[in-house]
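User: Here's a chain of 234 residues. Predict its fold as tokens.
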Amino acid sequence: MNKATLKAVLRKNKWFAGLPAPLADSILRLGRVRKVDNSLIYSATDGRDGLVALISGQMRLTSFSLSGNPSFLLITSPGSWIGVTSALDGRAFGYDAFAVGKTVLFHLSQERFEALIGESNEYYSAFVRQVCDHLRVSIQNLIILRNRRPLHRLAQELWRLADRHGRQTRKGVVIDLRLSQEDLAVMIGVGRQTINRLLKSLEQDGIATAKYTSVTIHNLEAIERLSLSEGVDG
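Assistant: Prediction complete.
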């Protein structure tokens, strides 16, 4: 993969796109492209190993409860970065990162990351801003999870997945990410019966159809309206 293509993908991320040119060029020069296929990138208990960005394919971030059930699931999109918090504080990642199917990653090793942030306070601050960005998104998602109705949470997640991973077909926008109903339930923080009921409701209204590992959105405007709804749980 040439540098121009790699840079174009990484610039889909607002944090990377806003970096000073010398820092962005240094990251591109110091990082290495890795190709993986259905393999664990790192586990929740692994120590720091630098930063990883998704270039193509699918990367799932998952954490599990003490009982062994999945309690968190996030599907990343190309240009997304993971690992910065561990790279900075030296603690374990706290979640599993798994590449689904043929996936291309960009890896900035811990050694090269530390050498880079050691060059200037400006470079160090840039990576701290990435942590701040992640924190703000996490807080916003927590607010949504705590306050909004399950149907609106599902619509927002489907809207996000359609925007980043959807494929336009004659029947609508297909989200084909090997997502089961259990996966969707974990992503919006509800039980299996609830997600089944919500998906049936969307199907009855002609908005979306769920199969075993994919969702087809027939009415993207309706999904967007639901995702933007201010309705909250009472």
